[in-house]
Specification:
The chain has 4 domains: 264 residues, 2-enoyl-CoA Hydratase, Chain A, domain 1, CATH 3.90.226; 180 residues, NAD(P)-binding Rossmann-like Domain (Rossmann fold, 3-Layer(aba) Sandwich), CATH 3.40.50.720; 119 residues, N-(1-d-carboxylethyl)-l-norvaline Dehydrogenase, domain 2 (Orthogonal Bundle); 85 residues, Orthogonal Bundle (N-(1-d-carboxylethyl)-l-norvaline Dehydrogenase, domain 2), CATH 1.10.1040. It has 31 helices and 19 strands. The strands form 4 sheets. The chain has an 8-stranded mixed beta sheet, with helices on both faces. It has a 6-stranded mixed beta sheet with strand order 1-2-3-4-6-9, sandwiched between helices. Strand 1 and strand 2 form a beta hairpin. The relative contact order is 0.06. The structure holds (S)-3-Hydroxyhexanoyl-CoA. (S)-3-Hydroxyhexanoyl-CoA (3H9) binds next to strand 5 and helix 3. (S)-3-Hydroxyhexanoyl-CoA binds next to strand 5 and helix 3.
Length: 708
């Protein structure tokens, strides 16, 4: 047999059992060798007089995790998976699939083509192709509705979610659960049952009952399509999924398979597929940083957080949820009580949302969490995270005190979002133990953690930052020291560009609309209103107080904030929020404020198209991203992409700004920058890296590949 698929005969209760095992680590992806091996095994079993039932099972940690994603975009090699699954289903004797780990995508499609399915209780199944810009291309859209009905199948296919084995049993995706932890044995036991109970060959493709009521039901599909279109917001693949499921109800099975196959091939060629697969692999590459090769993480059994405000309490709860005991430090008893109240509010919210139950809420609040007004209580902590006011003097003074009380070997982190970690580290006698851990608000929710590595930070300290992120189920991105690190440095550039455009004639509402239509969940002004306009105001003030005197175009935002209009929390910001409403409406007074600023500056407003707005907004992002890579602040372009995807709402189906720039073409982005540079040379100096890449005919992804 093939190297990755083995075939053996065991004697069962009433005849031979052919055990077909897939062994293609790490996740048994159905690459060419696996497909070929399965095809041969199915043919062999069909002819094999020594076996009356077959079991297909995966070796190692999982059943098949899907098609081999690395093969997408390369020439197609037969047999393709849909040929394989059809061949398995066509076998004349019963085939059982034993599922453990995950049966995802092509893995579940393989299982659906078997005549029976048994799963370990811990297993998960799903069709996550939509997250890769695809649809299930090996019969998933045709077989799953036949097995469990159109509505349940649509939910699973369009959401791409993982379904637990118990739910899969309830829905009818699997026939039985096995209590043990050995999938091979579970498969053999089920095969014996098939023999003992004379269970027949049962082909999913021949099941028609569950789709009968959906056949020709226009209202059903119109409803599904309308809701999917609303959620998809620009994404193609969810729409194609619904079309293929509809085809399952309208066409004979073979024609439905062809419909699905054609749609799959069409999606394979899209930019969205390219972008989403880039995001998939970048998720995994971003954690591969040099320090992890040389430094093992330090212990992480107890933490201390300095500060109980919004950030401090969010970070505390993120750690409590992961099971890490936290001591919170505040400056006096009154602030300590406020800190506790902030933490309890988050935990109560978690309880309300069903994230935790009452017992867990009480254990986290009373056993894992404590608060103190004495900084000496950080003495037991393996990691101390300072989340105090964003002010260099405050932080310096705190780190001097932290240095006095933290135990030797403790990791000392600052949650600064802009400030120089090296200056902070220099206040201690152990700068090698200091790093930045930049959490995003709300810290118990947001996935991104920037791990900021200082000039003297030891590799094992950086490794501890990454280990903490993993424990908290966050995505860590390594960043070097500079004002704003990766994310906020880029944010500052595109917000500045937005402010320039407003000064020149665009309205904040036009900018938000363009950004939302690009795929962001909200525009920068909607975001500002949500976060609180007082934060940006304070940051700008900090910058100007520190002597910065470049071109300034945020006067309108300053004036809005100075009116006490801080956004949603005050009912008014750039938008007006009618009583209790979270979606704002446009405010004519804001437009008047902007008009007044323009008049004072003697600017004659001009109009902007949505395309003009996005070209400038996006080019500002890419140019700064390139500079950040060029300076080594980000290791690779993919680190910039991941930061913007997880911290700033950049649409995943565009892959991140650097990937999107590759897709558009770096020569076009550079041409845009050079065009803008003619009017504003100060802002638009093209990044050297961008110029070099264009000259060499390379792109950002070529840098990712070189670094791999
Ligand atoms: C599909 O099936 C299309 C079909 O409908 C139609 C075809 C015609 N291929 O995530 P991990 C690598 S589309 C290639 O760290 P975990 C991964 O890059 C597919 N490689 O482990 C990593 O490599 P490295 C639908 C893959 O335990 C290593 O395996 N399926 C694939 O945290 C370990 O992965 C999916 O979308 C793959 N399919 O999570 C499922 N999968 O070590 C995608 C993984 O070099 N996979 N790798 O960095 C997953 O969701 C997770 O990997 C899984 C395990 C949950 C399985």
């Amino acid at each position: 047999m093939s190297e990755v698929v083995s075939y053996e005969i065991l004697s069962g209760d009433k005849g031979g059992i052919a055990v077909i095992s897939i062994d293609n680590p790490p996740v048994n992806a159905a690459g060419h060798a696996v497909r070929k091996g399965l095809m041969e095994a199915a043919a062999r079993f069909n002819e094999d007089a020594a076996a009356s039932v077959a079991v297909i099972v995966g070796k190692g940690r999982t059943f098949i995790a899907g098609a081999d994603i690395r093969e997408f975009g390369k020439p197609i090699m037969h047999p393709v998976l849909y040929e394989v699954v059809n061949a398995i289903e066509a076998v004349d004797k019963p085939v059982v699939c034993a599922i453990h780990g995950t049966a995802l995508g092509g893995g579940l499609e393989t299982a659906l083509s078997c005549h029976y399915r048994v799963a370990l209780k811990s297993a998960k199944v799903g069709l996550p192709e939509v997250h890769l810009g695809l649809l299930p291309g090996a019969g998933g859209t045709q077989r799953l509705p036949r097995l469990i009905g159109v509505e349940a199948a649509t939910d699973i296919i369009v959401s791409g979610r993982h379904v637990s084995a118990p739910e899969a049993l309830k829905l009818g995706i699997v026939d039985a659960l096995d209590d043990g932890d050995d999938p091979r044995q579970a498969g053999i036991d089920f095969a014996n049952r098939v023999m003992n109970e004379n269970m027949p060959v049962r082909r999913t493709s021949e099941m028609e009952d569950k789709i009968a009521s959906a056949r020709g039901n226009k209202a059903l599909f119109d409803g599904i399509m309308a809701s999917v279109e609303k959620k998809a917001r620009g994404q193609i693949s969810p729409i194609k999924c619904v079309e293929a499921i509809k085809a399952a109800t309208e066409l004979p099975f073979d024609e439905g398979m062809k419909f699905e196959r054609d749609a799959f091939i069409e999606l394979l060629g899209t930019e969205q597929r390219d972008a989403l697969i880039h995001a998939f692999f970048s998720d995994r590459e971003v954690g591969k940083v040099p320090e992890l090769a040389t430094g093992a993480p330090r212990p992480l059994d107890r933490a201390a957080v300095i500060g109980g405000g919004t950030m401090g309490s969010g970070i505390t709860c993120a750690m409590l949820y992961s099971g890490l005991p936290v001591t919170m430090i505040e400056r006096d008893e009154e602030s300590a009580a406020k800190g506790r109240a902030n933490v309890e509010k988050i935990l109560d919210d978690g309880l309300k949302r069903g994230k935790i139950d009452q017992a867990k809420r009480d254990r986290l609040a009373n056993e894992l969490y404590s608060v103190s007004a004495d900084i000496a209580d950080i003495a037991e902590a393996d990691i101390v995270i300072e989340a105090a006011f964003e002010n260099m003097d405050v932080k310096k003074e705190l780190f001097e005190r932290i240095d006095k009380h933290a135990k030797p070997g403790a990791v000392l982190a600052s949650n600064t979002s802009y400030l120089n970690i090296d200056e902070i580290a220099a206040m201690t006698g152990r700068p090698q133990d200091v790093l930045g851990l930049h959490f995003f608000s709300p810290a118990h929710v947001m996935k991104l953690l920037e791990v900021v590595v200082g000039a003297k930070t030891l590799p094992d300290v950086t490794a501890t930052g990454f280990a903490l992120a993993k424990k908290l189920r966050k995505t860590a991105v390594r960043a070097g020291v500079c004002d704003g690190f990766i994310g906020n440095r880029i944010l500052e550039r595109y917000l500045t560009q937005a402010a320039y455009m407003i000064e020149e004639g665009a309205s904040p509402y036009e900018i938000d609309k363009a950004v939302v239509n690009f795929g962001y969940p909200m525009g920068p002004h909607q975001m500002g209103d949500l976060a609180g306009l007082d934060i940006g105001y304070a940051n700008r003030k900090r910058l100007r107080d520190s002597g910065w005197n470049g071109r300034y175009a945020h006067e309108h935002m300053d004036r809005i904030a100075e009116l006490g209009r801080f956004g949603q929390k005050t009912g008014r910001g750039v938008y007006i929020y009618d009583q209790g409403s979270r979606s704002g409406r446009e405010d004519p007074e804001v437009l008047e404020i902007i008009d007044r600023v323009r008049e004072e500056k003697g600017i004659e407003p001009k109009t902007f198209t949505e395309e003009e707005i996005m070209r400038r907004y996006f080019a500002a992002m890419v140019n700064e991203g390139a500079r950040i890579v060029e300076e080594g602040i980000a290791l690779r372009p993919l680190d910039v992409d991941i930061a913007m995807l997880y911290g700033y709402g950049f649409p995943r189906w565009r892959g991140g700004p650097m990937k999107q720039a590759d897709i558009i073409g770096l020569d076009k982005i550079l041409a845009d920058i050079r065009e803008f540079e003619e009017n504003d040379p100060e802002f638009w100096r093209p990044a050297k890296l961008l110029v070099d890449l264009v000259e060499r005919g390379e792109n950002f992804d070529s840098l990712n590949k070189k670094a791999a």
